[in-house]
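Lab notebook, design round three. We kept the backbone fixed and only want residue identities now. Task for the bench partner: fill in a sequence for the structure below.
Input structure tokens:
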């Protein structure tokens, strides 16, 4: 009788963990989609209203304004603050920073409409959406531990960053192409890895707590970055130019 009760407790515990994981991942994806919507809307508004030419790029001379560099590099500061200050920041503060980050990314992304054809942007977006959705399902449903794969992919990511810095000075179109291909591969894998990692975090989180809310926002930031980088590398491949 005692063994039966223990078995039932194990089943109930497993069901509860799955329920927590689903609730947690729903929050993560909700925040992520809100962030992507904000970025997309701001990018579209800046471009359609003519603010890109007014504040970021001089279409006559091709020169860029100081605000262009602020929009390009300020989001990195927000990621750094959210990462390094995670333990000290409250859940509402994390959410505010995430929204501000998404807005700045939208300002930066508005220049993509100048650099790439609209059809290429749509193609890259739908391709990235399809790949991301597929790998998110894989990461959520697979029983294979992706930890080792994730570690390898993060090492590859560091290598790509170094290669991009080097290619900034070399300006090699072939190297740029190779970097883009590797970038697509790495962020495709990282999507599955991050989803699995977040699912496991969700299984051990208490629904409705401030700490869980903060984890959900930070998880949304991770998946947002996976999607955005996947989109950018695909856009570079499809657009065929930097």
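Proposed sequence:
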């Amino acid at each position: 009788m005692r063994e039966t009760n223990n078995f039932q407790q194990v089943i109930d515990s497993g069901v509860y963990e799955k329920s927590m994981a689903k609730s947690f991942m729903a929050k993560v994806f909700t925040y992520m989609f809100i962030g992507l919507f904000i970025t997309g809307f701001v990018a579209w508004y800046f471009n359609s209203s003519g603010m890109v030419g007014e504040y970021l790029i001089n279409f006559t001379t091709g020169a860029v304004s100081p605000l262009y560099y602020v929009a390009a590099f300020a989001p990195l500061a927000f990621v750094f603050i959210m990462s390094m200050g995670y333990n000290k920041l409250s859940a509402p503060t994390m959410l505010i920073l995430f929204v501000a980050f998404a807005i700045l990314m939208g300002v930066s992304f508005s220049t993509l409409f100048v650099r790439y054809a609209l059809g290429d942007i749509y193609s890259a977006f739908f391709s990235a959406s399809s790949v991301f959705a597929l790998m998110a399902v894989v990461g959520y449903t697979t029983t294979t531990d992706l930890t080792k794969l994730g570690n390898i992919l993060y090492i590859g990511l560091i290598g790509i960053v170094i290669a991009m810095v080097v290619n900034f000075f070399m300006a090699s179109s072939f190297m740029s192409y190779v970097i883009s291909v590797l970038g697509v591969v790495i962020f495709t894998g990282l999507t599955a890895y991050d989803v699995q990692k977040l699912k496991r975090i969700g299984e051990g989180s208490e629904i409705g707590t401030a700490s869980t809310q903060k984890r959900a926002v930070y998880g949304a930031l991770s998946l947002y970055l996976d999607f955005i980088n996947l989109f950018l590398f695909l856009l570079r491949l499809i657009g065929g130019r930097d």
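Keep this in mind before ordering anything: Confidence is low (pLDDT under 50) at residues 6-14.
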